[in-house]
Design goal:
244 residues, Aminopeptidase, 10 strands, alpha+beta, binds coenzyme A, 7 helices, 10-stranded mixed beta sheet, 32% helix
Length: 244
Amino acid sequence: MFEICRQLEWDSQFFEQRIARIECERLTSTQLAQVLKWCEEQRIDCLYFLCTPEDNDSVLLAERAGFHFVDIRIELNWNVEPQSLSLDTTIREFHESDLAALRKIASQVYGNTRFSYDNRFSADRVSKLYQEWLIQSCQNPLHKVFVATCEIGEHGDEDGIAGFITCQFDDPEIGRIGLLGLDDNAQGKGLGRLLVQTAQQFFNSAGAHEVRVVTQGRNIPAQRLYQRRGFRTQKVGLWYHKWF
Ligand SMILES: CC(C)(COP(=O)(O)OP(=O)(O)OC[C@H]1O[C@@H](n2cnc3c(N)ncnc32)[C@H](O)[C@@H]1OP(=O)(O)O)[C@@H](O)C(=O)NCCC(=O)NCCS
């Protein structure tokens, strides 16, 4: 490790490639030269760079060095306000027996992320990545997962599970929505809104002051959903991947 770059152990192991990340959001030409030298020494296969859109020099440097633009990272936040309690019985807490159905949904609905748009990661591996994130959240006692249910067969599925939302904390006052996903057949029916509303109620009752969520620039449905529920854009970043 040197101060600008860090190898990502988890990503490297998961993708079976040596993956590293640039730790700062701006680069000078001197830093870039150091980064490329370090990557060569460390035999890095793929380097992630989350660049601020405000620094055109960094964008130009990255582009000239062969970094490929893969996504716009959009972080939204919501300042917690008391929520009227929903009596909707469509949403409930996660049970262990839901996991297989949730994994199936997670394997199918994340086609617009930076990993999916980077052709060097196989679709199968990317699908497994989201399943893995979901499993980790479901198994983490510090996370809370809510599930949207439907009548069996109502949305064309066989298990009565329509979708999920995962909730965690960055610190005791800052909540974070991790993964949100609805089965293809259950989208556009108001269940995403109900899941986000349930997460908001949960964070309010848990004493959070702020809730954050990250989505993709390409994901207009998710952005509109969060905006509808009172979230506002807080930070934008440009994701680049460079393969060696
Ligand atoms: C994004 C997603 C969670 C939305 O859930 P949903 O149940 O389909 O959305 P809802 O029916 O509850 O709609 C709620 C709001 O979302 C927005 N929305 C939902 N689908 C939309 C679409 N296809 N186009 C534009 N806006 C859309 C709208 O603002 C809508 O509110 P409005 O109708 O009052 O304007 C769902 O489509 C999904 O699972 N997509 C794939 C996975 C994903 O992208 N997850 C989020 C990753 S951060």
